Amino acid sequence: MFEFYFTGAVLLLMMSLLTLEIAKPEIIIPSTLMVFVMSGIISVKEAVSGFSNEGMLTIGLLFIIAGTIQKSGIVDKLFQSLLKRSFSTKKALIRLLPPISLLSAFINNTPIVIAFTPIIKKWCEDHNLSPSKFLIPLSYATILGGMITLIGTSTNLVVHGLLLENGQKGFAFFELAKVGIPITVIGLFYLIFLAPYLLPDRMPKSLKEVNSLREFTGEAMITKDFPHLEKTIREAKLRNLKGLFLVSIIRNGEPIAPVSNSSTLLEGDRLIFTGDITTFADLQQNRGLELQSSIGEDFPKKHKLVEVVISHHSPLLHKKIKETNFRSRYDAAVIAVHRQNHRLKTKIGDTILKPGDILLLVAGQDFSKRTDSNDFYFTSEHSRIINSLNDGRTGLYAVILLGLMISLVTLGIFPMVSAMAVTAIILTLFKMVNPKEIKDFIQWDVLLIIACSFGIGYALTNSGVASFIADLLIKSTAPIGVLAIIICVYLLTNIFTEMMTNSAAAVLMFPIVMEVATTMSVSPSALAVAVAIAASASFATPIGYQTNLIVYGPGGYRFIDFLKAGLPLSFLTMITTSILIYFFWM
């Protein structure tokens, strides 16, 4: 009985820490695993079982293949060709979304959204259209497409690996297409013909108007040249700066907030402003006001303005900017920070970074070279060092290899993990990808989370928590029928995936659905499909899935925009998935 209550309490604590973003998931989840090992709820063998799981290993190899295709720029060129001319919003969505969904069935959806967000923003600026009509559909289309194949999303591979580990057959390469293709077709119809009426139109004239919807926080220091030293805020006219609001004054390390009009200004005061991104650079036109970077250093020479989003996997997460060695690490300085629905009142250097924070950077020439793919999601056009001829060929060869690999797996000639390994080896041997790039392409933190989640799944089973939840699920839905059980499994998984990573949600739900399948004598594969689809189908919030977070800031969205556009799609996906699972697997 102790194990039951202890496991339940630890899991609730883990989910609370993940939801509140107290620390990185790759710290919280392994720490939870260690607690279960030390308490004896799971053995060491069970704790490390995830590190040799076929699904987890396949995901690591898939990162290499998808990264090779992505770095070549072949995908970028393809979609730039689709947007050469001006189209209406509906026609542009018709041209864009179907090929994007098809592509995301075979390539990880995160790099697709990273690549297309700046392309779509620039195209919208050139043709006087609102990016807010395009970027949520972009994210949702990649999520839908990822449900079509076994390699479309990491969640599918994780559930496949769990099925194999539990003595089940696992998924065939296109088995999920029975559900994936219908929900993608229905979803695309919704995104093209209905969603534009639910999405905001926040850019009538230029992208600057989208940017102005987002409040950045920046910092300026008063020097001895300031003409209004020892005068009040009102006399210095600092309340009348267009697009900016003076939030606080930092004097001798102590904040003065709120700032009254009668507050006097002294040399060395650091003024914290919040407001329109486009006006921060104008602060330096005021004599004696020096725009400050994150750590007070000079801006890089030959600089450019770059806007980035802190990724879910960034090594900068949960650190103060001044503690990250940002200038020397990236050849860039942070001059402003934006956090959705929050007005920051601290110095830039004291800001603790969270996923989704948007940084306005003054970047030097080496910025692109020093930036790893996991650090940021780019939201503005940025330099990319690409040898177009060689990388174009590399991308083509990688696509051909991927197609050959898919054919061999589909025909049953090779198992998935072997085909992936052979493809990755060929890419390496023919120098289409080098060891450093492999290290950058693989998202090690994602693999760590997935591997550790397997051990937590064992804790759910060993402690009896999984069977308890399964019994509760059966008692509440069995009188209604099997279809109700499928819907409940879907809903519970969907709630979990909004609270933690999609792969972790799938692993936690798997022992529960295995208990349900055994008790109800239904196909484990049927409920496993429900878990795989529901864990990826995060449409209702910007924080549940990383592609939603990437487009959150660039589209000028508010939280409610995802609810308006996402809830109908979530409902359509849930009902369609449940009916198709009942039809094909029951």
UniProtKB/TrEMBL annotation:
The chain crosses the membrane at residues 6-22, 56-75, 96-120, 140-164, 176-199, 396-429, 441-460, 472-492, 526-545, 566-585. Signal peptide: none annotated. Its main location: membrane. Pfam families: CitMHS, TrkA_C. The keyword Transport applies. One of its GO terms (molecular function) is monoatomic cation transmembrane transporter activity. It is a multi-pass membrane protein. Residues 205-289, 293-377 form the RCK C-terminal domain. Keywords: Membrane, Repeat, Transmembrane, Transmembrane helix, Transport. It comes from Rossellomorea aquimaris. GO terms for cellular component: plasma membrane. This is Potassium transporter TrkA. It comes from the Bacteria. It is found in: Membrane. GO terms for biological process: potassium ion transport.
